[in-house]
């Protein structure tokens, strides 16, 4: 019960890392507001957590829309009185050479991956300043640290998340607001399987990806959820502006 009586808001909580983290936080005693662009998926996360005895509110939210992000945070405070932890997890990917990436493509990536995080941080900090502080955890990526062909737009947005995290950590540390990032490697989520399915042989694509990971497997959503849990607890009280890489060793080779 390391998050007993804490109130958390998790974006992209309808599947993958977001759902795993929502379940993890709930098991540790947190009240969870699970938001996802897919309202049905958010509702399913709520049902899973409540069935297990936890407390959760599922909301359909498009994080690229500032008004909707404001509404989610307002609903959190209205229902539960405060916001202790924000986990900015929602994200999308896109595989295209830069020569084929349209302005609309870039706007979609920026909207979810960077603006969504920016809006979440902005309005969470506004709320946390009325309390005794709070914790923000942003999902960046191993591709905020290293390059990879066909991911120029994605790399740019995730690099922005990492830069934003560092800037905010210095700006608000004195107000007892901790801001950190997690940089996952390839994780076994619906998003990565969508990418595998773009190839002629999805199984071969998955095998090739695993071959780049010294740990010899894709990450599990729960692997990232446990890192988020560490950052959300008092164990990480002196951790500010960190970029914790959880990639099975992929970026070291």
UniProtKB/TrEMBL annotation:
Xref: Pfam families: adh_short_C2
UniProt keyword list: Oxidoreductase
Gene3D superfamilies listed in its UniProt record: NAD(P)-binding Rossmann-like Domain (3.40.50.720)
Domain of life: Bacteria
This protein's record includes keyword Mitochondrion: no
Signal peptide residues on this chain, from the entry's feature table: none
SUPFAM superfamilies, per database record: NAD(P)-binding Rossmann-fold domains (SSF51735)
GO molecular function annotation: oxidoreductase activity
Family the entry assigns: Belongs to the short-chain dehydrogenases/reductases (SDR) family.
Record's protein name: SDR family oxidoreductase
Organism: Adonisia turfae CCMR0081
């Amino acid at each position: 019960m390391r998050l007993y009586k804490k109130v958390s808001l998790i974006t992209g909580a309808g599947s993958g890392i977001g759902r795993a983290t929502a379940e993890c936080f709930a098991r540790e005693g947190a009240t969870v507001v699970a938001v996802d662009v897919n309202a049905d998926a958010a509702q399913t996360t709520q049902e899973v957590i409540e069935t297990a005895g936890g407390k959760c509110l599922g909301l359909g939210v498009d994080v690229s829309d500032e008004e909707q992000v404001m509404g989610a945070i307002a609903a959190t405070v209205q229902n539960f009185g405060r916001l202790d932890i924000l986990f900015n997890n929602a994200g999308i990917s896109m595989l295209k050479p830069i020569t084929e990436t349209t302005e609309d493509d870039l706007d979609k990536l920026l909207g979810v991956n960077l603006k969504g995080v920016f809006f979440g941080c902005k309005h969470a900090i506004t709320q946390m300043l009325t309390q005794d502080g709070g914790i923000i955890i942003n999902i960046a990526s191993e591709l905020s640290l290293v390059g990879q062909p066909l991911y120029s737009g994605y790399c740019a947005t995730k690099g922005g998340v990492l830069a934003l995290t560092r800037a905010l950590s210095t700006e608000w540390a004195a107000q007892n607001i901790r801001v950190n990032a997690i940089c996952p490697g390839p994780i076994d989520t619906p998003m990565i399987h969508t990418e595998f399915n773009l190839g002629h042989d999805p199984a071969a694509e998955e095998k090739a990806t695993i071959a780049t990971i010294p740990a010899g497997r894709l990450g599990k959503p729960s692997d990232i959820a446990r890192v988020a849990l560490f950052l959300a607890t008092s164990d990480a009280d002196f951790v500010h502006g960190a970029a914790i890489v959880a990639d099975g060793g992929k970026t070291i080779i």
